[in-house]
Amino acid sequence: MRDFFAAALLLLAACAHTEAKTADAAGATLAKALSGGGGIEVQDAVHGVRYELPSGADPWQVTREGNAHSASGVEVEVSSFPMGKSTSAAACRDHARARLAVRPEGGAAAEPPRDQTIGDAPTAIWSFTTGALTAPVRNRWAFYARGADCLVLHISGARGDGFADSSFEIAARTFSVLSLPPERQREVDLLAGMGFLERRDPASAMDRFEALARREPGLAKAHFGALMAGFEIGAPAYGRALPHGLAALKSERELSPEQRQLALRAVGVMQLAENQVRDAAGTLAELVVRAPDLAEGQYNYACALARLGDAQGAIDHLRAALRLDGELVGHAREDDDLKSLRDTPAFRQLLTPPSAERK
User: Fold this and answer.
1) Domain 183-358 in this protein, CATH class
2) 149 CB-side CA count, 13 A
3) Residues 233, 202 contacting (CB under 8 angstroms)
4) Residue pLDDT, tens place only, 292-344
C-alpha cells in the first residue's frame, strides 16, 4: 500500500505545483506611495493581503515577491501556512510557536526564541529575539486567518530599533486580508492538502480536500485528494472517503489514466471493506482490464468474485495474481474473503508449492 500511496502523492504533486507556478507568475506585488511622502501601501496579490509601511529616512524597496526592506536594515515579509480546518489568528500563533520550538525530528530547537512577548491587539502578535548576543535581531510577527489558512506578517530589525517597532505597529494595524479569486483559492487548497499528505497528516489533508469538494462539487481533483487521504487514514475513514472516490471516477477528463487506476484500486478496496461486494466487483473488473499485470488488482477481484459465489472466476484471477506476485500465497491462505474456496481442489493446488506436489 505504501507504494500505491507514494504514486498517488507524486501525481497530486505534479498537478498542484504546476498550478501554483502559474498563480505565482500571475500575482505581482504592487506598491504605491501614500500622501505625505515616504510611506507606501503594499498589495500582495500572491498572498491576497494589503498593508501600509511608514515613511522614514530611507525609502522602502519592495520586491516582486512581496518582501520590503529599508537601507536601515528593517526587513518585511508576508508568508502563509495551512491549517486543516477554519482557524483563528490566535490558533495560527500557537501553531507557529509550537513548530518553531522543536526541530522536525523532535529535538530541541537549534536556537530557541528569547525574550518572547505575545499580545492580541490589533491581532495575535508574537515578538522574540534571535541571533548572536552581540548583534541580536528582534522578530515581530502578526498573525491573521483566512478560512483555514494562516497569514503572517514578519518585520525584523535590530533590537531596540524604533523604526522597526513603528513599522510593525502601522503594518499590523493596516493589514487587510483580501478574498482570493476562486481559481487561486482552489490552488491554495490543493497545495494545502498535498502538503499535509507529504507530512503524513492525512486527517488534515482530508479536511482541506473535502472543503474544496463542497465548494466545487464537480472538481475531480478535490475528490481524488480526499480519496487518497482517506485511504491513508485507513478503514475508519473508508465510509467517508468512498463517496469522494465514486465522484472522482465519474470524471472522464480530469483524471489522468494513472490517477484513474489509483482511484479504482482504492475504491475497490474500500467497497470490499464496506461489504459493497457487487459494486467492488464492478470497480475491480475495470481495474484488471486497465492494468492486467497489477497483482493487487487481480487478487482483490478474486476476493470479490469469491464472495459473490463465482468460484471459477475467483480461481482464475487468483491464479493470475499469484503468477504476478508469489508472496500473496501466504495472505491467500488466511484471507476470509477466500474462505469459500478453501475446500476446493483448485484452491489447494494453487497454494501448494511445486516441491510439495512432487512429494
Assistant:
1) mainly alpha
2) 26
3) yes
4) 999 999 999 999 999 999 999 999 999 999 999 999 999 999 999 999 999 99
Cβ count within 10 A of residue 345:
7
Length of the chain: 359
**Which residues is 176 bridged to in the sheet?**
50
Dist. CA 117–CA 202, nearest whole Å = 33
Question: What top-level class would CATH report for the domain 49-177?
Answer: alpha beta
Q: Inform me whether the pLDDT recorded for 267 exceeds 60.
A: yes
The residue written with cell numbers 499528505 in the block is 197
DSSP state for residue 160 in the 8-state scheme: T
Q: For residues 222 and 312, give the distance between their C-alpha atoms in angstroms, rounded to a whole number.
A: 39
Q: What is the pLDDT of residues 152-172, one digit of tens each?
A: 999 999 988 999 999 999 999
Decide: 20 and 32 in contact? Cβ < 8 Å.
no
C-alpha cell, 251: 470524471
Domain coordinates in residue numbering, the chain:
49-177, 183-358
Please give the Cα distance from 247 to 217 (Å, whole number): 9
3-state SS assignment for residue 68 = strand
pTM listed for this prediction: 0.83
